[in-house]
């Protein structure tokens, strides 16, 4: 094989079985779960120690944060695909230079976007829907600090994903746990002890970013025998290739931003600030469950990219089939937990006598249908990115949200009222599965042809 002839590292290749695959990627799944959990910690402290209006303020701020972070996830996922393929082809030195360029360029662009947003913060907060004075104050205070800390978030995400390429998934998981514990500690200190309110929540989150970034950065500076920061490549086709590969992840995050903005608008229109608080809780539940799918996709991406880069097409096809099987099992599990445990989940955020409680439990049960189908969409998009096919990956992401989700969000509330808000996302996911299956089927045929041509 091409890669073996160059003496490449085969640590990204496994003997195919459900057990071996899960053992290989469990740290990635665990990392994403704990990342989502310590993000949710903010909301738990805010809803229980401040109020649900402050929780709504975080959700109002979310679309702008996600809009900026869309570029971060594009560089991270696209960069992993690019570098994994280089490693699969045995080009280790080039992989180091390209990795360094991806990190430095991503940091520069993130700082640029933050500087662009800060002068217009008041206008942006009002545009996002925070026109009520109390809601405006919470949203602005939180957004200001999160934006200032966003460069650390960018480095955290890129470093975390590249740790898996380097085979340091356990280290990445340890860093995530450390970040989470740091976040919890400072949330308690700033919100409960020092009574800093929603600003304390933002500072606690930022403290978590900094811990992970610091130690991961040290690792990539000192890891001279493996993937490490060095003189960046001067070949800016690396950036073009990275952005092309990661385009679907950017589209996904842009669509998340737009979807959240639209849902905030709809819930404010139909239910007021209590509705925004309810959709915030449902989003946190979605964030936790989807983290399993994203963790699975992130963990399997280097394996898929390696198989493609080393031209082992039959292996790649079998790996993809195994991944789809496991995603379907996870999907059914997530649906059962969300549907049957809606009341228990909601009680973590608010008491049963709070108006938000009834809205959330009813909405979550309807919304939980989306978990049956969203995992396949997340994996399919990630798989094409891992294969270096950013175009198909972007098409899937675009259709999923900018076409289907916005269509159902526009039509269903007109037909079904409030229930239409909760059912719009499941309807979009159900429709999207048919498209995902078609694209994955075409990919399997292509891999068969390539294998036969070898």
Descriptors:
single chain; 454 residues; mainly alpha
What would you note in describing this structure?
By secondary structure, this protein is an all-alpha fold. The protein has one domain. It contains 17 helices and no strands. It is globular, with a radius of gyration of 21 Å. Residues 1-10 have low confidence and may be disordered.
Q: What's the quick description here?
A:
The protein is an all-alpha fold and 454 residues long. It contains 17 helices and no strands.
Q: Which blocks of ≥5 consecutive residues have pLDDT under 50?
A: 1-10
Query: What's the story with the biggest beta sheet?
Result: none
The total strand number stands at: 0
Q: Structural class of the secondary structure composition?
A: mainly alpha
Quaternary structure type: single chain
Reading the helices and strands in chain order gives: HHHHHHHHHHHHHHHHH
Report mean pLDDT, rounded to a whole number: 85
Distance between the termini: 10 Å
Shape: globular
Strand percentage, roughly?
A: under 5%
Number of domains: 1
Helix content: over 70%
Number of helices: 17
Give me the Rg, rounded. Answer: 21 Å
